[in-house]
Amino acid sequence: MKLWKKDTDSTTEVDMFTVGNDREFDMDLAQYDILGSIAHVMMLAHVRLIPEAEAQTLITELRKIYRSVTSGHFSISPESEDIHSEIELLLTRSLGAIGKKIHTARSRNDQVLVDIKMYLRSELEALVYCIHDLFTQLQQLSEQHKDVLLPGYTHLQLAMPSSFGLWFGAYAESFTDDVTTLIAAYTVCNRNPLGSAAGYGSSFPINRTLTTRLLGFEGMNTNVVYAQMSRGKTERIVAMALANVADTLAKLSMDVCLFMSQNYGFVSFPSHLTTGSSIMPHKKNPDVFELIRARCNRIKSLPNEIMMMTTNLPSGYHRDLQLIKEHVFPAFTQLTDCLSMAKLMFTHITVTPPNLTSPLYHHLFSVEEVHKLVGQGVTFRDAYVQVGRAIESGEYAPTSSVNHTHEGSIGNLGTAAIRQHMDELVHTFPFDSVRIALNKLITPE
Q: What is the DSSP string of 58-71?
């Protein structure tokens, strides 16, 4: 079944090429297509485009199909082009002419748009909670190891004293900025495009405010032309937010790969979480973190992929947009898998405090020595020169103690403040109100 079919059939080659992988990726949209259809039917009855009794018949059947989707007993038949065609086919088989009324006042264009936006909302919610789990673990490790000093590096050269508390805590706080960008992405997704039809509205007296409320959207894409233009742009904004999360995780993974190496030796993991070599019996390789790094770097390319796919497209719908699903949808699974694996690994991490009294780390404390002289009344610039000359002459003899007390420093991590900020960000998302609205659609009164 094709929603656009008239009296002629496409050739098999055209069918296969244009449908592509839609049936596979549309399975992710199935429950949202049904929810959108239920809201649409309620609206049609409200504005008297279909009788209330027919609307209730359609809604009852749609809820039955919804249950088959959520129970895993649903599939898209080969005769249907996509999820939208399959749902209408099932309704028509069950209800006859009544089933044919469901497409009144809408197009496949706004139908898939609303499906995608609801799908993205749901996936973003799952991602936020996955990030929060790793964030919480990193904060726990930060507090657990807050008194263990760690060399800090710039240009991969010894720089100044850091700590494991700072290191774990830095990546925890990095996720707060990532969640901030996810809020922006979610806000863009949380606008209702339904009712824009093919991108030019409808002559029917539809009520878009009603479907916006029924589907739990914060508002609507008001201009019907822009509603259609938002496809591709919405996914690109979401992809950019995913790329930010991936960037944090990739950088963290790179640090772990460095710190696991024998030249650093700051962290280690049990043998069952590392891999070996086919020729070198001593190896314990950080394959998990290397794959996290690679997969996250691939996700970081996603915004550019979408940007290139939508380059030079004028307003209005174009079939190019169909392919974006194949890039965006898998990225959520890949990113949440990486976050989950990172959490597993950090559950078993062993921290090995480096011996900072070793001559290897003496230069790490040069700034501390400068500050001591400043505390004795020497100007900073003169103190800098004195310590520099001591290093050059071999007279430099630092101590390996530090006393940093300002906010966010070694001795004052600010863990509670960062946690409060993250909690405030997570509570910004209207997850509960969306869930309540959607549950009402599938729950008989």
A: HHHHHHHHHHHHHT
For residue 78, give every residue at least 6 positions away whose Cβ sits within 8 Å of its Cβ, in sequence order, or none. 23
Distance CA 167, CA 153 (A): 12
Instruction: Kindly report, residue by residue over 367-401, the tens digit of the pLDDT.
Output: 998 999 899 999 999 999 999 999 999 888 888 88
Q: In b/e form, how buried is each residue of 384-408, taking b as 16+ CB within 10 angstroms?
A: beebeeeeeeeebebeeebeeeeee
Q: Decide if 331 contacts 242 (C-beta within 8 A).
A: yes
What CA dihedral angle connects 198, 200, 203 and 206, to 10 degrees?
70
Are 12-104 and 109-356+408-442 in the same CATH fold? no
Residues 88-103 have pLDDT tens digits of 999 999 999 999 999 9
- 217-229 in b/e burial notation, b at 16+ Cβ within 10 A? beebbeebeebbb
Output the pLDDT for position 21.
67
Q: Which fold has domain 109-356+408-442?
A: Fumarase C; Chain A, domain 2 (1.20.200)
> What pTM does this model have?
0.92
The answer to whether residues 166 and 150 touch, using CB atoms and an 8 Å cutoff, is: yes
> What are the pLDDT digits (tens) for 326-365?
999 999 999 999 999 999 999 999 999 999 988 889 899 9
179: left (phi over 0), alpha (psi -120 to 50) or beta: alpha
Given a contact cutoff of 8 angstroms between Cβ atoms, the answer to whether 116 and 235 are in contact is: yes
The CA distance from 23 to 26, in Å, is 5
pLDDT for the residue numbered 4: 43
> CA 418, 422, 424 angle in degrees (round to 5)?
115
What DSSP letter does each residue of 178-231 carry, written as one string?
HHHHHHHHHHHHTEE-TT-TTTT--SS---HHHHHHHTT-SEE--SHHHHHHHH
- Tens digits of residue pLDDT in 240-281: 999 999 999 999 999 999 999 999 999 999 989 888 766 777
Nearest Cα residue to 288 out of 262, 249, 247? 249
Domain ranges of the chain: 12-104, 109-356+408-442, 359-393
- CATH code, 12-104: 1.10.275.10
